[in-house]
Amino acid sequence: MGEAEDRYLSEIGRDCEGVLGPGVELLGVEREDRDDGVRLVARYQLEGRARESAATGESAVEAHALLRDQLLLDRVRFGFSAWVERP
């Protein structure tokens, strides 16, 4: 991966941290080039459990936009699950 791609992936990571909000530790963002496009995977820790959210788009920009949406959905879903599972 080139320097520009590394910087863009770093920017995606900062954006993911903002979407995930406080109390969530971003562990990393990975890019996978596939036959069906670009897949971005964000791995993070929420309530002491490792989680991941992923999205695939025709380009990195599209995958990033779709990942933002998926992060929001998963953050609500995982947060609710953690809340319900509390003793």
Question: Could you describe the 3D structure shown?
Answer:
The protein is α+β, with helices and mostly antiparallel strands. The chain has one domain: Double Stranded RNA Binding Domain, CATH 3.30.160. Helix content is 51%, strand content 34%. It contains two helices and three strands; from the N terminus they run H-E-E-E-H. The chain has helices at residues 3-20, 60-85, and strands at 24-34, 37-46, 49-57. A hairpin with a 2-residue loop joins strand 2 and strand 3 (49-57). The protein starts with a helix and ends with a helix.
Amino-to-carboxy terminus distance: 45 Å
- Text of the CATH class: Alpha Beta
**Helix run count:** 2
Structural class based on helices, strands and sheet pairing: alpha+beta
Rough outline: elongated
Q: What's the arrangement of strands in the largest beta sheet?
A: 1-2-3
Give the name of the CATH architecture.
2-Layer Sandwich
| Rg value | 13 Å
How many separate domains make up the residues? 1
What's the helical proportion of residues?
40-55%
Task: Give a short summary of the structure.
The chain has 87 residues and is of the alpha+beta class.
Blueprint (SSEs and pairs):
Elements: H1 3-20, E1 24-34, E2 37-46, E3 49-57, H2 60-85
Antiparallel strand pairs: 1-2, 2-3
